[in-house]
């Protein structure tokens, strides 16, 4: 047998799919991987799905979203994550008295998508000039930005696995830094 032509077969290199992006527009979530032909698999959990005993329950209207890309013969991508929630447009406004509670909430709220990864917190879906602040769980402010073209991004020193508190409009949302 000649050297280099051994009887074993070489295993072809398996490529990894590109991590998808998550975006929100027109009441729809969009997942996209740069890997041509990849299909995104997603999971959405809702903190409002619960059971219990009592006379009231606080609803958060918040969805935790994760997605990864896969393609036959390729390794699955890393997981992209985000939090989709609704914030009050005008927290001082009480609403119109002849509408149902859900109709009032829908008129006074907008959907935003929050992503927190590698020290960067980004928020999409904001009105122009909305102030966004990010603090660590102990209340230390990490940064502030005003939204431009519907987005705000704040670089922080919050480490992976720690909680960031994102404040915008009339809402504060806790997100886990990935």
Main attributes of the structure:
single chain; six-stranded antiparallel β-sheet; 178 residues; mainly beta
Order of helices and strands: EEEEEHEEEEEEE
| SS elements, strand count | 12
What is the general shape? globular
Largest sheet: 6 strands, antiparallel
End-to-end distance: 52 Å
**Multimeric status of the protein:** single chain
Strand content: 35-45%
Mean pLDDT: 83
Radius of gyration: 21 Å
What does this structure look like?
The protein has 178 residues and is mostly beta strands. It has one helix at 101-107, and strands at 21-25, 28-32, 39-46, 62-70, 80-88, 109-117, 120-124, 131-136, 141-146, 151-155, 163-168, 171-176. The strands form three sheets. The protein has a six-stranded antiparallel β-sheet with strand order 3-4-5-6-7-10. A four-stranded antiparallel β-sheet has the order 9-8-11-12, with no helix packed on it. A hairpin with a 4-residue loop joins strand 8 (131-136) and strand 9. The N and C termini lie far apart (52 Å).
């Amino acid at each position: 047998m000649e050297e280099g032509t051994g009887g074993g077969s070489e295993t072809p290199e398996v490529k990894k799919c590109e991590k998808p992006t998550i975006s929100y527009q027109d009441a729809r979530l969009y997942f996209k991987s740069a890997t041509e032909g990849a299909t995104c698999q997603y999971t959405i959990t809702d903190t409002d799905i619960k059971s219990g005993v009592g006379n009231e329950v606080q609803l958060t209207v918040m969805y935790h979203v994760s997605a990864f890309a896969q393609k036959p013969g390729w390794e699955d991508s890393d997981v992209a994550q985000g939090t989709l929630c609704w914030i009050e447009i005008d927290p001082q406004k009480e609403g119109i008295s002849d509408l149902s509670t859900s109709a009032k909430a829908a008129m006074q709220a907008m959907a935003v998508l929050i992503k927190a990864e590698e020290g960067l917190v980004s928020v999409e879906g904001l009105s122009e000039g909305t102030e966004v602040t990010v603090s660590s769980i102990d209340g230390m402010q990490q940064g502030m930005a005003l939204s431009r073209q519907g987005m705000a991004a704040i670089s922080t020193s919050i480490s992976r696995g720690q909680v960031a508190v994102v404040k915008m409009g009339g809402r504060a949302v806790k997100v886990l830094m990935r």
